[in-house]
Amino acid sequence: HMHSMWSEGMTQDEMGTKRGQYISRNLSEFNDLMGQAANAHGKDLDQYAQRLERQAWEAYGRALHPIMDYTSPVHNQKWSTGDWKKHGSKGPWNDCMKTLALPLLMRRRR
After folding, report:
1. What is the pLDDT of residues 6-63, one digit of tens each?
2. What's 76's DSSP letter?
3. 27 Cβ partners below 8 Å, 6+ apart?
4. DSSP character for 48?
C-alpha cells in the first residue's frame, strides 16, 4: 500500500483501503507534529520546533509517496516475489532518481 501495490493474496480494493489508512495516519502525524512545533516556537524552543517540523515534513512525504506511485502503471499493480530486484536503488531508474534528487540534496545543505 505504501507504493500503491498489492501483494499476492490481497485484492486491489484491500490495498486501496490500506493505502488510504496509511495516508491518513501520516497526514495526522504531520498535523500533530506541526501543532507541537508551533507550540514550541511560541515558547522560544526554536531548535526543538525545527526538529519537529523536519519530522512533520517526513510524515507528509510518506503520505504523498503512495499518491504519487498510484499514477505510475509500474507501481499500480500486483507485487510479486522478486519484484524488489527491479525497484528503487536496484532498478534501472536509480541513475535518473539520483539526478533528480541531487538539486534537493544540495538545497538542504545550504
Report:
1. 777 888 888 889 889 999 999 999 999 999 999 999 999 999 999 999 999 999 999 9
2. S
3. 59, 60, 63
4. H
Cell representation of residue 88? 528503487
User: Can you give the pTM of this predicted structure?
Assistant: 0.67
Closest among 25, 30, 3 to 16, alpha carbons compared: 3
pLDDT digits (tens, 9 = 90+) for 67-100: 888 887 666 666 665 555 555 544 444 454 455 5
Q: What is the C-alpha separation between 97 and 87, in angstroms, rounded?
A: 11
The per-type count for the chain, helices as H runs and strands as E runs, is 3, 2
Quote the cell numbers at residue 46.
Answer: 526554536
For residue 70, the model assigns a pLDDT of 81
107: left (phi over 0), alpha (psi -120 to 50) or beta: alpha
